[in-house]
């Protein structure tokens, strides 16, 4: 893999400046969680070394899409549990889904 886990974790921190993660009261250090995820992703990417560039990109895109979906589901569940409204962005996404279901 062309990036080291430490460098990926640093990039993750940079991305979080724009879109912070709410770690709430998890009993783990934020940097330890980042390091764990960065290491896991670098291992996954390394396992794709024998894939073509296109297949590697498609696989990483599929993994990213799955994680975004999982994040969306968890976010909406958390908001519902606390009786809070979803953000405008999430509401717009869910509105598009509702329109498709009506068709």
Task: Walk me through what this model shows.
- 73% of the residues lie in helices and 0% in strands.
- It has 4 helices and no strands.
- The termini are far apart.
- The model has no long low-confidence stretch (mean pLDDT 90).
Number of strands: 0
Instruction: Tell me the β content.
Output: under 5%
Largest sheet, in brief, is: none
Helix proportion range: over 70%
What integer value in Å does the Rg equal?
A: 17 Å
Descriptive key words:
single chain; 103 residues; mainly alpha; flat
What order do the helices and strands come in, and which of them pair?
Elements: H1 5-18, H2 30-46, H3 53-81, H4 88-102
Helix pairs in contact: 1-2
Task: Give a short summary of the structure.
The protein has 103 residues and is mainly alpha-helical. The protein has helices at residues 5-18, 30-46, 53-81, 88-102. The mean pLDDT is 90.
